[in-house]
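debug: dumping io for the single-chain case to check the tokenizer round-trip. Nothing else runs in this session.
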Amino acid sequence: MRKKSPARRQAILDAAKTTFEKLGFERATMADIAALAGVSKATLYSYFSAKNELFVELIEASADQHLDQMHSIYVGEQTNFDPDEIRSTLALLQPSEDVAFTLKRLGERILSVFFTPQRLALKRMIVAESGKGQIGRLYYERGPGLGMKYLEQYFGEVIAAGRLRPADPKLVAAHFHGLLESEIFEPWLLNILHELTPDLIEGVVERAVDVFMRAYGPERDQNN
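debug: decoded output
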């Protein structure tokens, strides 16, 4: 049996990603992917037995990339890491730092990293396919869901340090995430908003953090 080439496998995955983004999952065919990858259909099927298998592989890779980017946002370096290290990574976030400043910096990085045309194409495909199987759950649990756990643990430490008022850290994380996306998510998803400029990101984040701190800032700050 001929040994499979990692380079050819990656070329097939790259071709599948491009094809799915261009045509969508339903319209894309294995023949389209094989042609773009420069391989025969027989070769393609020797690596991946079905279009769905290719799609799941891409979702898993994207989720892993999501984790790597979240790691970069929090600790300032881009590197592959084991998802089980999330808790130890969070220890690098210091609750003693100014919360509003930290959230503004974090928010700007998140919107810059995750609100891109490539992410938009992927998000649309995942939404379209989520009702047909476990693809949506797989992506969420391995990507955005773990990102939310980052936020939840960070807010738990900040609340415990008295830098935010007492509240459920999970809800606090959800509210911050919702505020961060509230002005842009639907226009972005529906192709009304085509680009997030630095000025737009700065304004969106500043308003989100302002509302967040009015809701969750410590009592002494509310009375000033």
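debug: round-trip ok. The longest helix spans residues 51-75.
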